[in-house]
Write a structure and sequence with these properties.
This protein has one domain: de novo design (two linked rop proteins) (Up-down Bundle). The longest helix is centred in the first third of the chain and has 56 residues, at 2-57. The radius of gyration is 23 Å and the shape is rod-shaped. Helices cover 78% and strands 0% of the residues. The protein is mostly helical.
Length: 183
Amino acid sequence: MYLILAVIILAVLYVVFIYNGLVRARQVAEEAWSGIDVQLKRRADLIPNLIETVKGYAAHERQTLEEVVELRNKAQAVPPGDVAARGQVEGLLSQALGRVIALAEAYPDLKANANFLELQRSLEGIEDEIQMSRRYYNGAARDLNVKVESFPNNLLAGSFGFTKRAFFEIANEADRAVPSVKF
């Protein structure tokens, strides 16, 4: 009798232990995604200032500038939690921003503009923060995915509604290339 009761108590405690581990991993992944989202928002907020500064010097580069604005709006419209779609749009936005920064090469006055230089430094800092946030999120997603897929967690994860997380990555190989910007 006591043995059966002890086995039941141990089984319940084990289920609670697995459940709490899954909850902890999910919360870390959500917090990590929040970090990426904050950095992407900072970059999105910086883009209008960058566009306005460049627009005054490079009026005939309208197509490049409009593309950045369009991609920024698309990125902002991606539903929360759609990591794959957000990664794809943000990759395209990064490339387009690289082309805007590269415009400074053709416009020496723009290249020397203090406001543009400050915006460029801010954008570089934000890009570094996005990269760090992406690595942190992907690590948290990996940890959650391992817990969800590994035995015996996988027996309980599905019944408690835990699912794998998508990694925040650039799907297109061309998007992985860092734009070459020389001043």
